[in-house]
Amino acid sequence: MYSAEDRDIRGAEQDYKKLEKELDKKIKRTPTNHPGYNEYQYHLDSIEHDPWQLTSFLTTLYDDYTRSEVQGKLKETFKKQYKLTTWVEVQIRYKTVWVISPAGIPVPTQVPYEYKIFHTKLVNKGLEVVIREELNADQWKRYEIFQDTLGGRPYLFNGGLPPGGSDGSGTPGIDYQVPAEALTDSEFAAIYKEAQKYVGTPYVWGGSTPETGFDCSGYVCWVYNQNGYNVGRTTANGLWNKSQHISEAEAKPGDLVFFKGTYDTPGMSHTGIYLGNGMMVSAGDPMERNHADFYPEIQTQDEQAAWELGGKGYLSIQSCEDGWDYTIYHSDYSVMDGGQLNAPELTIQEAREQILEAHHMEKGRRLLQDYDAVMDKVAEAEELSTDHRPSTLEKLAELASNTSAPKSSARSAPEL
């Protein structure tokens, strides 16, 4: 079993993801950092890793580690996993120019020139390949045990929840009492009966059967396929695209509920089966609805995020070396306040709550937004503000006008 604290495990994972994001940014800055070329060509492997592999590897090496203790190993492993190389290819090409002949007639002429191509290549060796090369036989066996059991903490990544009952007893099963009237619907009763069988099954990323374990979409697909719906095996977003979309108020037991932003993926990222009274079951436990959400918010390893604050404005948070940078915006996306929270051990959700509490904004809903979309709106607001901001000449002209204009008396004239 993993022996490190959850916050250290998630913190180390966040630090590794930060290294990957910096690598991605470096590649995207290639034309800026290497200007003057005719063309830029990219030969790139994907930038990704399995967080379970990283955690099992660190636990095998260090057992009860802290986030700060593994920084050197994270950077060393990262350099072994990714190799970035660049080179320049020079081609001799020809272009047509018109040359005036002695007779004064324009003549097309082929002239050679150098056409320079800047190549960027990224090789992702694969994290587990690096791990396998570093561990000896005994360590590899221990690593495999951690992988098979997910270190006893299947809830750590990708929206999983701890196995066991929702009453904290550790006994698998749905502890929530489904409304009796809901069970009179034979269709829902069959779905519910099937769903009950697998609560507590280990959470496994990509899992789709009781034997392999389930992720959220694998669990929903299995339950519904067993009841004749034939939804196949798809993602949460795939299920969303197959579904008829209704409002939260219209949801009834047996419907699916969907969520965005539980981890870094486009579209819907999490799904579960609605049980009634604001409860759902999803890959592990029923989860109680809190305000507009159908489940307790999952702590993610995101490095940046933005939320709409109940119509009162927006909050954006981005990780930094010492913790979290944040900015609070008005509803028109103008800046209200900002600062830094020096607490790198917190998840982004925990940081958000501390920031809102410090600004006395802890009450009200937090609706996750697309971070880039919010930043685009902020940029537009700043540009609009700049466009409407008077220039120095305009200010001087206004000042001169105010100075030369006669001042009216504040006193009224006496009546005659």
Automatic annotation (TrEMBL):
Residue stretches making up the NlpC/P60 domain: 185-318
InterPro entries, sorted: LPD16, NLP_P60_dom, Papain-like_cys_pep_sf, Peptidase_C40
Keywords assigned by UniProt, alphabetized: Coiled coil, Hydrolase, Protease, Thiol protease
Coiled coil: 2-29
Source superkingdom: Bacteria
Aminoacyl-tRNA synthetase recorded as keyword: no
Family membership noted in the UniProt record: Belongs to the peptidase C40 family.
The protein's name in its UniProt record: NlpC/P60 family protein
